[in-house]
């Protein structure tokens, strides 16, 4: 989901693609793991999501560690979507999420925090060290490099790895407003990615949608599991099975 100017573009409520993939994104192919960003960090070494990127998990040892994380996730069936509204998780990209959320109350909204975390060659609005006007993004979902400017804001969207509508159906409908605002703004659950690819995801879990970049699918599954465990949210049994499969399970 992305907030750009006065336009809200969601990753939820859209039909997931039949093949579990998505558009190839924009930009040019990048070399190396996880979109070629040498700054990208293995999610196993980034449990709070404050470090940049989503590096591929490749070693046999790390893939075993990844399966150990995913195995801890509890499963249940999806509940109804009844009553879900984006506003139930607070105003998009607010800086006033509960103070235990990394980056909150730092004078910069969540969207710009994430652009700064993952972007390179950052250019800011004159007089600001918050509002990003242009950047280079090594997109983990497509493995491509995107040269982004604010004038085409929705070309890069901030994905909720565990979609908010999914959260709602798995138990967040019974949470306090503060807890919903936390998961909506937690950098552990947020990744700047190619806009069209994010839009293709809808509110799908891993059994229905995975990043087109196959190198990153184990890392994506680990991040999905990390959010699930932090917020004590179950996933569906097919989603957990697919997550394990991406890491060799």
UniProtKB/TrEMBL annotation:
This is DUF1524 domain-containing protein. It comes from the Bacteria. It comes from Streptomyces koelreuteriae. Pfam families: GmrSD_C. Residues 1-61, 187-210 are annotated as: Disordered. Transmembrane segments: none annotated. Residues 110-245 form the GmrSD restriction endonucleases C-terminal domain.
């Amino acid at each position: 989901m992305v907030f750009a100017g006065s336009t809200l573009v969601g990753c939820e409520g859209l039909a997931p693609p039949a093949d579990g993939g998505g558009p190839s994104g924009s930009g040019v192919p990048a070399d190396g793991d996880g979109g070629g960003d040498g700054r990208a960090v293995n999610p196993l070494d980034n449990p709070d999501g404050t470090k940049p990127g989503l590096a591929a998990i490749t070693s046999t040892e790390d893939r075993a560690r990844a399966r150990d994380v995913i195995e801890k996730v509890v499963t249940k069936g999806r509940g109804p979507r009844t009553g879900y509204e984006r506003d139930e998780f607070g105003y998009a990209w607010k800086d006033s999420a509960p103070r235990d959320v990394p980056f909150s109350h730092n004078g910069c909204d969540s969207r710009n925090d994430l652009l700064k975390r993952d972007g390179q060659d950052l250019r800011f609005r004159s007089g600001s060290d918050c509002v990003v006007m242009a950047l280079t993004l090594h997109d983990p979902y497509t493995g491509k490099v995107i040269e982004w400017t604010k004038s085409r804001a929705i070309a890069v969207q901030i994905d909720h790895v565990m979609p908010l509508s999914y959260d709602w159906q798995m138990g967040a409908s019974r949470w306090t407003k503060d807890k919903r605002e936390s998961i909506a703004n937690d950098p552990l659950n947020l990744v700047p990615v190619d806009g069209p690819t994010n839009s293709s995801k809808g509110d799908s879990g891993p059994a229905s949608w995975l990043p087109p970049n196959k190198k990153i699918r184990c890392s994506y599954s680990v991040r999905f599991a990390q959010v699930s465990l932090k917020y004590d949210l179950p996933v569906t049994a097919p989603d957990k099975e697919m997550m394990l499969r991406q890491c060799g399970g």
